[in-house]
Design goal:
Blueprint: E1 11-21, E2 26-35, E3 48-51, E4 56-63, E5 66-67, E6 70-72, H1 82-85, H2 92-114, E7 119-122, H3 137-142, H4 147-150, E8 155-163, E9 170-173, E10 176-179, E11 201-209, E12 213-215, E13 219-226, E14 232-238, E15 251-253, E16 255-262, H5 269-276, H6 281-285, E17 289-296, H7 301-309, H8 341-344, H9 348-367, E18 375-381, E19 392-394, E20 397-401, H10 411-429, E21 435-436, H11 442-461, H12 463-480, H13 513-529, H14 531-556, H15 568-586, H16 589-597, E22 608-609, H17 611-622, H18 628-636, E23 643-651, E24 656-664, H19 667-683, E25 689-696, E26 702-708, E27 714-720, H20 744-751, E28 762-767, E29 776-779, H21 783-792, H22 796-806, H23 820-830, H24 836-848, H25 859-870, H26 886-901, H27 911-922, H28 935-945, H29 954-970, H30 977-992, H31 997-1011, H32 1018-1036, H33 1038-1055, H34 1077-1099, H35 1101-1111, H36 1125-1133, H37 1141-1154, H38 1168-1175, H39 1211-1215, E30 1220-1223, E31 1235-1238, H40 1266-1271, H41 1312-1315, H42 1331-1334, E32 1352-1353, E33 1366-1372, H43 1382-1386, E34 1404-1407, E35 1420-1421, E36 1439-1445
Length: 1453
């Protein structure tokens, strides 16, 4: 029998009994599954059933009490074939590419095999009758409640099994055992249908030694002694709701317990609704929740030190289990040791239990419902067990590490621990109660749980903290997502696995991009809908889920408990109470929730969340349902992150800002934007709006301006600004206007006379301030505006953005006045009223500022600030540090780190900074009775020494670091933060060359000693492993570091009994401190390989490009690691390590990184565009693709309510847009400008102010940033109509060029070979330097054609050898011209003539004497014919617009 032909049964109930022996590290048990009768086989034969049973030794299988034969398939091993390993490769990169490509399919085949059931057996035909007492007294007692009504309607399967050694699902360490479900590894300790879509009711009986405690999911029903000698005891747990097997788990060990009873202060909205349906409200209020918290009886070393150093009594935490949110509290006898458990853990367990109650109460308040489970367990286990940083959130059970216990006086550690507890508790709502309908909806569950955690951050840490965290996470997404990452939901990809197209591996990603992006997208939905409406909608969804749960429990009936737990009476009572609580919490919520949420048909009672149902219901409630389809296409099903560069210029006479936007990105981001634009057109929505706010000088109000961007590459918009009214002074006459008709000389003299310009009323400008778009926006502003935004804005994100831009400027000394940006950063750092994270960013920005000579301009400011706060006045001796204000504590850390990052022009650390750091650390003295611990500041000082670049000073620095390392071994800091910082700083000093070879050997000996010391903390030993990898990578290359990591991984797998036997065992010389150490080692190795690849990409593009150009082909990406074939074979062999899914996936990630391939299983299908397009309905009327080649770009304000957007607008929509004149200068030399100006005069485009400079200052050398030059480079003619820069596109993937515009009626098509792409690059601060290049009208090769009606051309002129400043005079008439009628002229058709109209005359006249910059070919100016209503009217009086064209000059070095 094969698992491919087996049928997975539909399980209704499953009861399991496990016996766990931690001394022998074995377990055994049996399970009973009540399944629905399967349909008969198609051929009339016997039906074959299958169960997932990974790596277990099955002893027997019974069907309705009758034994049947069975087959257990073992995991299949697959190695690299000889054709791959023995082939001759001309370079290590090609070998790595071949191995990575083969391993991609090898890994996918392994995952496809695992979706098949390992245990298969045939059902007897006919099925035997279910006996009354089959399987012994325990089975008879367990089935008493359902024997009468269940016989004949279900089949009972019984499986007995035992562990086979090296189990993947149950991990042991000393006296502890812990389940590790990973991805589809529940079946490694429990035979079941292990799919996320499976839903059944479970009960577990866990037998362990008498001196241990077994903690399981759901609610503890009873415990009993097992055996006459009472050496074993059994804990019986029942889960009162149906869940997937992956939400089950357990923990066993010598644990101390602290129990409390939670009663809410007042009835929730759901309870009130339940009372309206006949359920007494007082009864709902009196149903308490039982919270039980467990921790090891033997206190970890760091917690023991923290308990000794804690300041009693106020900061020692409660030890009675009560909290302000708990109505009554008490202890019970479950697990023993409940009395004094909080005191035994130094108050950490009590403190963690107190915050758990606070978060639990907050979530019920936000969601307006009672949590359906009657009990919750939270277990803190030793860090040697495999627990991730986020813990495990199971059904009514949370498994965390003891390092996540909230410690007294520890600021950073307590904040991180609170966030982890809140995240696990949020996953009880979204993950256990509410589940994803399909694997494509898993992102919504992850995002909503992250949103719920953010609400806890906002409540207890402040709104500013939440806003800043969201901004930082968005910045991380922009850096990580280069367009190759998979989407949140991969539509169109074949998904044979119930875990989704990626087989659930997105949860194993070490970068956590999928999880962070899901939370960010849900935050975007909250911003679009509003906080109140979004919270109300989520509450309606939760109420619908509770209603579905109540219906599910009511259908089960009170006589049928949720499991076959011995002692059916207790289980039945508990199940009835849980069902009553769920009914009261839900009430008649479906109809009421639908009415409250604004849904047309109400919210359907279901526990399954669907993406489009959630989005459509939210949009319907907020009247923006038409925006949801474009939103889903671009941000959920699409890939990539757009990058928007923007700049503006103020026109005083028009009282308007001219805002220019340029959108770039990857090919995948371009595709998502195109399809989203099509969806917006089909829905008739206004998706793609970027909000621009202008802070004006008058008043404190912000002017909101919507600008439609969508999928356009370039957009030019006009924002109206309230002008500043100048008060007239008595006795002063106004300036006389200049008469018309004066010559150019008079006009130039008038301009250069120094007449006062109107005051600029704009203080600063922001784009997308609410974060409604997941776009990387870079807005260029003058330095004075950035300073005003930093000092006067009350938005922490606005202040952080201003600091980000100020950090890119170069400090220029202007006389005796301090530079504006430097002074603003200094004020922000010193102002205690500024949010502390903004002050930290200001300190880091000061570290990067350089003056004209390349010196660290911010170093004196940083030194003065720290010395004034922490040094004795007038001396260089630091005083005793007593941390009383957490804000100043974080600012001090940032200042110390910033001082260490200051550099001289040659890249070394300034001597003042070096002496300052050594003095601070050598003479540091902390106050023992301070309210907060100073370990973070000490760790920051130690880590800052690793940033020092100063040869000959290594011995002194190593001595200081060794001193604090020995101190941390005795007085352990939380998480061993100080010791970890010391070890990593030592490795950094050796890698930078500050230490010589002898000192590097000294560091290697220190890391080896720490790594092999079992008495030290796990975190410190992990830091020693990371430091050893960095040291080896610096000395012998990243390939040697990867070999060292593999040695540790192989050693750990061999010690755990799961070694594959194919890897060289002689290299296994690294002792791993924990079960998760192998995965941590591979994560560090992946970081080393990523850094090497980044360095190779940064240092070798010129040589690679030259080589590719000589060979006539595009250069391939270069790998930074030359991995030999044996190393690749070792990594490939780890793909067979199914016992540890994290190790296996990280091995795959490393193989892809070595080949410079995306480290994911996702590969875009060839029909990705069609799959996305099929998601939306075909637009009515045959609307064309947005951004199609040949269409004119939108000019002016493009936001129109309803109808097509952008260049696809109708004539009526285009008529409302303001006319624009585009002066296109294609093929310009480097430094020349392209300009887009409005139809009126204004200040010169060069502008005044540092932010309007023509280059982004980057790097330490100062000068123009080459990457910015490439980013803004002119697009080739074949890229017309593209949304983003096609730098990564293949030539055949670029849309064809637009048809030529034959103004004379005799032009020939534009030939790319004749004109060629533009050679000059554009600078970062250009207003619209590339505006005319991307969508320029093709030039004609016919000699000097006559201008058509309504248009004019620049006369052909020979290029001049000198690039002298030029003058262009433009005469403009018909300011209210219809742009919609200009479309005919743009398509090469003559404009329509109206009866009685005058002969057509050019509406835009350009007089261009031969003074343009050298090498500038003629350009075409779009013709704007007069509107039909004004055709018979006399021609409008033209006005003059004169502007100067000057070549750009690079900034002084």
């Amino acid at each position: 029998m094969s698992g491919h032909s087996a049928v997975l049964p539909s399980v209704k109930l499953q009861h399991a009994s496990l016996r766990i022996d931690t001394a022998a590290q074995t377990f055994s048990g049996w399970t009973e599954l009540h399944v629905l009768p399967p349909p008969p086989a198609a051929a009339g034969g016997a039906v074959t059933l299958g169960l997932h049973c990974y790596g277990l030794a099955v002893e027997s299988v019974h069907v309705n009490g009758a034994a049947v034969t069975f087959t257990v398939d073992q995991p299949v091993r697959e190695e690299l074939p000889e054709s791959v390993t023995g082939a001759a490769y001309d370079s290590p990169s090609r070998a790595a590419g071949a191995v990575a490509e083969y391993c991609l399919y090898l890994y996918e085949r392994q995952l496809q095999r695992e979706r098949q059931p390992e245990l298969t057996f045939q059902l007897p035909d006919p099925l035997p009758a279910l006996p009354e007492a089959a399987g012994g007294p325990e089975q008879s007692e367990g089935r008493n409640g359902r024997a009468a009504g269940g016989r004949g309607k279900e089949v009972v399967l019984r499986v007995e099994w035992r562990s086979a050694g090296g189990s993947a699902g149950l991990r042991f360490w000393r006296d502890y055992a812990l389940t590790d479900n990973q991805v589809r590894r529940t079946s490694a300790w429990l035979p079941c249908v292990d799919t996320p879509s499976a839903s059944a009711r479970f009960s577990l009986d866990i037998t362990c030694r008498a001196d241990q405690v077994a903690v399981g999911p759901g609610q503890l029903q009873r415990q009993r002694w097992t055996g006459a000698d009472r050496r074993w005891r059994t804990f019986c747990y029942d889960v009162p709701l149906s869940c997937a097997p992956c939400q089950l788990g357990l923990a066993v060990g010598p644990l101390a317990a602290e129990a409390s009873t939670y009663v809410p202060k007042k009835a929730s909205a759901g309870a009130a609704a339940g009372a309206a349906d006949g359920v007494p409200q007082q009864q709902q209020q009196q149903q308490p929740k039982q919270f039980t918290h467990f921790a090891p009886q033997q206190l970890p070393a760091e917690l023991a030190v923290a308990a000794v150093l804690a300041t009693p009594p106020s900061l020692n935490g409660r030890s009675d289990g009560k909290s302000s949110s708990s109505g009554t509290g008490g202890t019970d006898g479950k697990g023993g040791g409940s009395n004094g458990a909080g005191a035994a853990s130094g108050g950490s367990l009590s403190r963690s239990a107190h915050f758990f109650s606070l978060a639990f109460s907050l979530f019920e308040e936000l969601l307006g419902a009672r949590f359906p489970l009657p009990a919750m367990q939270q277990v803190f286990l030793p860090p040697e067990l495999p627990l991730s940083q986020e813990g495990q959130a199971l059904a009514g059970l949370q498994l965390l590490s003891t390092s996540q216990l909230i410690q007294p006086r520890a600021i950073e550690q307590s904040v991180a621990a609170r966030c982890v507890i809140a995240r696990c508790l949020a996953r009880q709502w979204f993950g256990v109660l509410l589940r994803a309908a399909t694997p494509l909806d898993e992102w919504l569950i992850e995002g909503l749980s992250g949103w719920l955690e953010e609400q806890c951050v906002k409540r207890y840490m402040g709104r500013n903290e939440l806003a800043y965290r969201r901004w930082r996470e968005r910045q991380a997404i922009f850096l990580a997502d280069n367009g190759e990452a998979p989407p949140l939901a991969a539509r169109g990809v074949p998904s044979p696995s119930p875990w989704g197209p990626l087989y659930g591996t997105e949860r194993l990603d070490p970068a956590r991009l999928w999880s962070i992006k899901a939370t960010a997208v849900v935050a975007m939905l909250e911003k679009r809908a509003g906080e109140d409406l979004f919270r109300k909608h989520v509450g309606n969804v939760v109420a619908a889920g509770l209603a579905a749960l109540a219906a599910e429990q009511a259908a089960a009936g009170p006589g049928e408990p949720s499991s076959g737990t011995p002692g059916g009476g207790a289980a039945t009572g508990a199940g009835t109470g849980a069902a009553g609580a769920a009914v009261g919490a839900a009430g008649p919520s479906p109809l009421k929730a639908g009415a409250a949420g604004g849904g047309e048909g109400g919210v359907v009672p279901t526990r399954l969340l669907d993406t489009m149902t959630f989005l459509n219901d939210l949009g319907r409630a907020g009247s923006f349902r038409k925006e949801m389809a474009p939103f889903a296409v671009r941000w959920v099903y699409g890939r990539g992150v757009p990058h928007i560069d923007a700049a503006f210029i103020y026109h005083g006479r028009l009282s308007a800002l001219e805002l220019a936007l340029k959108q770039t990105g990857s090919e995948s981001a371009k595709l998502a934007a195109d399809i989203a634009q099509r969806a917006a057109v089909a829905e008739g929505s206004n998706a793609g709006i970027v909000k621009a706010i202008v802070r004006e000088a008058e008043g404190d109000q912000y002017a909101d301006h919507p600008v439609h961007l969508g999928g356009e590459a370039f957009v030019l918009a006009e924002l109206k600004v309230t002008p500043v009214v100048e008060k007239k002074q008595p006795g002063r006459r106004g300036k006389k206007r200049k008469a018309e008709g004066d010559g150019e000389e008079g006009e130039e003299a008038d301009e250069t006379a120094g007449a006062p310009q109107p005051e600029n009323p704009v203080r600063w400008v922001r784009l997308d301030p609410a974060g409604e778009l997941l776009c990387d926006i870079r807005l260029l502003q003058p330095e004075r505006m950035l300073a005003a935004q930093l000092l006067h804005s009350r938005d922490v994100v606005a202040q952080a953005e201003a600091i980000q831009r100020l950090a890119e400027l170069r400090v220029t000394t202007e006389g005796v006045r301090a530079p504006v940006g430097l002074d603003a950063l200094r004020k922000a750092l010193a102002d205690r009223t500024v949010f502390y994270r903004v002050r930290c960013d200001a300190a880091m920005a000061l570290a990067g500022l350089r003056d004209d000579q390349g010196q660290a301009a911010g170093l004196p400011v940083l030194l003065d600030f720290y010395r004034g706060a922490y040094f004795h006045p007038g001396t260089d001796a630091p005083r005793t540090v007593a941390i009383a204000d957490p804000s100043e504590y974080f600012v001090a850390q940032a200042v110390v780190t910033a001082v260490s990052l200051c550099r001289e022009p040659d890249g070394t650390t300034p001597i003042d900074a070096l002496l300052f750091l050594s003095t601070c650390l050598n003479d540091y003295c902390g106050a023992s009775g301070a309210p907060f611990s100073d370990y973070g500041l000490v760790a920051a000082m130690c880590a800052s020494l690793g940033n020092v670049r100063f040869e000959g000073f290594g011995d002194t620095l190593l001595t200081l670091l060794e001193k604090f390392l020995e101190r941390d071994a005795v007085l352990i800091s939380p998480g061993s933060a100080v010791g970890c910082a010391c070890l990593l700083a030592m490795a950094a000093l050796c890698a930078s060359g500050t230490c010589d070879e002898e000192q590097a050997g000294r560091v290697a000996a220190t890391t080896r000693r720490v790594r092999k010391s079992p008495g030290l903390s796990v975190a410190l030993r992990h830091a020693a492993m990371a430091a050893a990898l960095q040291l080896v990578a610096a000395q012998r290359g990243p390939a040697a570091a990867l070999l060292l990591a593999l040695a540790g991984v192989v050693g750990g797998l061999s010690n755990n009994g799961s070694g594959n036997g194919t890897v060289n065992q002689q290299t296994a010389a690294v002792d791993l401190p924990a079960a998760s150490s192998a995965a941590i080692l591979l994560e560090e190795a992946a970081a080393v390989v990523t850094a090497a690849n980044a360095e190779a990409a940064a240092t070798g593009p010129a040589a690679a490009a030259a080589q590719g150009e000589a060979a006539g082909e595009q250069a391939a990406p270069r790998s930074g690691v030359a991995a030999p074939m044996p190393l690749l074979q070792q990594l490939a062999s780890l793909l067979n390590e199914g016992a540890d899914c994290r190790v296996r996936h990280l091995a795959f990630v490393l193989l892809q990184l070595l080949a410079v391939q995306p480290p994911t299983l996702y590969r875009p299908p060839p029909t990705e565009a069609d799959d996305l397009a099929a998601f939306i309905a075909a637009p009515a009327g045959g609307a064309t693709h947005a951004g199609h080649a040949g269409q004119a770009l939108s000019m002016g304000v493009t936001h129109r309510t309803g109808g097509p957007q952008g260049s696809q607008g109708t004539a009526a929509a285009a008529a409302a847009a303001a006319p624009r004149i585009r002066l296109q200068l294609p093929g310009r030399p480097a430094g020349a400008r392209s300009m887009a100006v409005s139809g009126a005069s204004g200040p010169p485009l060069s502008g005044g102010g540092p932010a309007m400079s023509d280059a982004r200052i980057g790097g330490e050398g100062g000068g123009v940033d080459d990457t910015v030059e490439q980013q803004f480079s002119a697009l080739p003619p074949a890229a017309h109509g593209q949304v983003f820069s096609p730098a990564r596109l293949a030539p055949e993937a670029v849309a064809p060029a637009a048809p030529p515009l034959d103004l004379a009626g005799q032009g020939t098509p534009f030939a790319a070979a004749a004109a060629g792409p533009a050679t000059g690059g554009l600078m970062g601060a250009d207003i619209m330097a590339a505006f005319g290049v991307a969508q320029q009208l093709p030039l004609q090769t016919s000699p000097a054609p006559e201008p058509a009606a309504g248009g004019a051309m620049l006369p052909a002129s020979a290029p001049q050898p000198a690039a002298a400043p030029g003058k262009v005079r433009l005469k403009v008439a018909g300011a209210s011209a219809q742009l919609g009628q200009a479309q005919a002229a743009l398509e090469g058709q003559p404009p329509p003539q109206h009866p009685g109209s005058q002969p057509a005359v050019p509406m835009h006249t350009l007089e261009a004497p031969q003074v343009l910059p050298a090498g500038v070919p003629p350009a075409v100016v779009a013709a704007v014919p007069p509107p039909a209503s004004q055709a018979a009217a006399p021609a409008a009086k033209p006005f003059k617009l004169k502007l100067k064209v000057k070549p750009l000059q690079p900034p002084p070095q």
